[in-house]
Every structure is written in structure tokens, then in C-alpha cells.
Design brief:
This protein is α/β, with parallel strands linked by helices. The chain has 17 helices and 14 strands.
Amino acid sequence: MTITLAEIRAAAALLKGSVVATPFTHSRTLSAVTGAHVFLKFENQQFTASFKDRGSLVKLSRLTPEQRKTGVIAVSAGNHAQGVAYHAQRLGIPATIVMPVIAPYTKVRQTKEYGARVLLHGQNLADTEPFARELVAKEGLTLIHPYDDPHIVAGQGTVGLEMIEAEPNLDAIVVPVGGGGLIAGCAIAVKSIKPDIEVVAAEAALYPSLYQRMHGLEQKVGGATIADGIAVKTVGNIGYEAAGKLIDEVLLVGEPEIEQAICMLIDIEKQVAEGAGATALAAVITHPGRFAGKKVGIVVTGGNIDTRLLAQVINRGMVRSGRILSLRIDINDVPGTLARVATVIGESGGNILEVHHQRLFIDIPAKAAELDLMVETRDAESGRDMVAKLQAAGFAVHLMSSSATAGV
């Protein structure tokens, strides 16, 4: 099958009414922040909170009656698993999903709730795929690949089709890349309609598989990334061969920038994005000069992030922005001193989150003590004002926060 605009339009017709035609919204605030005219494609608003709904349904709809009866199998730790399970249930197709044993419990539970048989095997996807292929041979199941399949690519390409049809004057689109199915489909769609539009890939710096392949570099990836949805060792051959030449540039983004983009989407757009889903925005934030003055479409690919991880990212973002400070204050160990410190902090608009009063370290004089405080402030400026007032009151204050708040 050749992946063409006609195939993507056919996929769009098939998907109509069965997946969400997600909003493609202009962001005034992000435009002001980045210097570009930013439009966000909210694929995190799909039913399973990911663009994977699209390709999964297209592939499942193309199965033969015999394949539908026998059933399908997919290997995934998250979004692809849920997309396949959900639409297989809707179509009455038996689905088996093989997930690594370290897959987040919430994703395992959600996949089971969609009616799939979930098998936990191996520590990572590299371990699970051989096991899944054994089941293909043993049970006659049809493997639904997450990205290396032309029907999947055509389905994902409907994201780009919706973007260019909604905003024909886009200068560029920025798409997160893992296996490459989404950017391949989007590139074919938008370049077929507007050949001069730029297609920019965004990859986590720890997993630059597309960047390395396009530049003829040794494939070397790995590490703990918050963008686990695009932590793919090698891009798919089908998507790369179909659209590799249509991709104008690959931008790499670090973990702090991805975390920042997650926080910005929450603060500004009131939208929850997973790490992979925020990577395209992170690329635009990291390279503002690259997109200045341009009309840019950014794909927010998904919103399936563990709530504990999300809370951690938000708190880390508050530290980076100077809204949470960790302070160590040297005090005399006499009655009323702690109250004086608390009074200065309160009058400065600070809120004490944690306090530890240390008297017993032998390197502290017997009549002295150290206060370790975690303090929430309104913003970095109010944090600086609070520290200045503590110092003016005679207290020696040491900032213990990350290097990002060193200037507070």
C-alpha cells in the first residue's frame, strides 16, 4: 500500500464520527511567549487521551473477516495498547495486549477495562515483542504494530489533514517523534496540500533515533526520559521511507524543557499533557528564533501521565520558577525566634510548607540552631523580597533550592 493524500482522506472518512475531531486552537499567550503564532492540536482530548485512537481504528477496520474473528495482538506500554483495546472492543474483535511488567498500573487497568486480554511479560518492549510474535504464530493472531504499518500511518495522518484544512496558511507544523508514524502521515498530508510548509520533528534528546538516522549517525539512544511515549530505539521503516524526505528538520529537546512545556500547558491552556505530548511545544520554546513570526501548528499528542509524576513535575516547575524555595536559616536558639522568622515570611506573602528545626549537629554552636524551610511564594520577585526582608531582620539565609533558583 502506498501512503498518499487519497489514502489519508479515505482514513478521515472512515474515522468520522468514531474518533474526536480535536480542537485546533490559537494560543494568544503562548504566541506572546514564543514569538510565533502558535496553534495547538489537542489530541489529548481523544477518548483514550491519545492520537493512537486514529491509526488503531483504521487498521482494525481494514482487517479481513477471518482476522477479525481470530483476533489481534499489540505490544505497548500505554497509548497504543489503549487505542487498540478500545476500538477492538467497539468492533467486537478479540484483543490481546502484551505489556512489560513495569508498565504503569493505571495503564494496565485501563487497557483491561477496554476488554482486552492483558499479558505482562519482560522488562521492556524489546522483551515483549518476541513473546507477542510467538503468540501470533501459536494462536493465529494479527499483529497491530504501533507505527510500522501503512494503515496506521494513514490514520495518524488525519491529524495533519485536520490541521491544514483548519488553517491553510500554516507556515510549519511541529510533531513529536517516536516510531515516526504520526509525523510520516502528517508530512504526507500537509505537504501534498501545501508543498512549501515546513515539517519539523521534535525528539527527546535521550532518544534521537530519527535525528541519527537522517544524519547517518550511529544509533545510540537510552536513558530515563519523561517522554516515555516516544522513547523508541529505532524509527519505523515504512514511515521513514514514505516521508523521510518530507521532514525539514529534527529538533532535540532536553528533559527540563519537556517538563517546562507540561507546566505551561497546564498553567496557560489548562490542558494535561504527558511528556511525549508536550515535546513539540518544548521544541518551539527551546528554539524560539526558529519559529519567530511564523504560523506554527503544534501537536499535543497525548495526556496519559501518571498523577504522581504529574504532581512531581508541577512541584519541580514551581521550584524552577522560584515559587517554591528551600531555605536554611541560622538562628539563635532562644524563645520567640521561630515566631519572628514565620512572621517575616508571612508578611512577605510566603507560605511555609515544611519546617525542620535542627539543634543537635555538633558543628552548630550549642546556643544556635538551623531552620530548614520549604516556602511557597507568589512568584520569583516576591521570593527575592522575602529573602531580603529576612536578611534585613538579621537572619543569615542560605538558598538550598536547585540551580534554577540561584538568582532568587
